[in-house]
Amino acid sequence: MHALVSRARTRAVETLTLDSPDNRNALSAALVGELADALTDAGEDTGVRAVVLTHTGNTFSAGADLRDPPPPEALTGLLRQIIELPKPVVARVTGHVRAGGLGLLAACDIAAASTEATFAFTEVRIGVAPAVISLPLLPRTDPRALARYYLTGERLDAAAATTTGLITTHGDDVDATLAPVLDGLRRAAPDALAETKRLLTARVLEAFDRDAAHLTALSARLFSSPQAREGMTAFLERRDPAWAVR
């Protein structure tokens, strides 16, 4: 059976690659489960200094798999796992990111993208809301900019995503951009990295403690609503939903 998340290690950096290009690395129940297992192993392995999360194909992640979506609590758990992992997690993006995929980026400690990458919160266009992914996003991004892109579903380029705080940095060659980052992590003491990460993620975890139950329930309710059924059907049929004003 083809693994949906592949693993490789170079000089103490574990690279986890989302490898489901046929559905644009959509967050299926299976992919979320495999990624959670890989993160657990990396977190427990003393030979791992940092984790890089990347992808095959032209899309980092298209968001929730509409044919096999994970339970909202599974996505909530995955995002919290990334944030609580005692190793820094670095996103490497060379393609597009949509909807729930942006939650993965926000949960990562550092995110770098190529200049060809694009980003969009497409939830409102299929009748749902960016509920669970707001847990890491709201504490880490510019609120005025986020309001625009949450409400409209417009695309952002890499420069706008950097300004908004969706990603840390971007460049024509994402590997060249990340080279000094990974070099710095390799030179850092493991315990110091873990404690420094705890300082940086404290506010994000406060949001999880306060809002996770409510936003998980909201996500479940919206995904089962009539508007979501119409929106997802329209998306799969490549047509406008009934509410679209032409």
UniProtKB/TrEMBL annotation:
It holds the Pfam family ECH_1. InterPro entries: ClpP/crotonase-like_dom_sf (IPR029045), Enoyl-CoA_hydra/iso (IPR001753), Enoyl-CoA_hydra_C (IPR014748), Enoyl-CoA_Hydratase/Isomerase (IPR051683). Belongs to the enoyl-CoA hydratase/isomerase family. This is Enoyl-CoA hydratase. It comes from Streptomyces djakartensis.
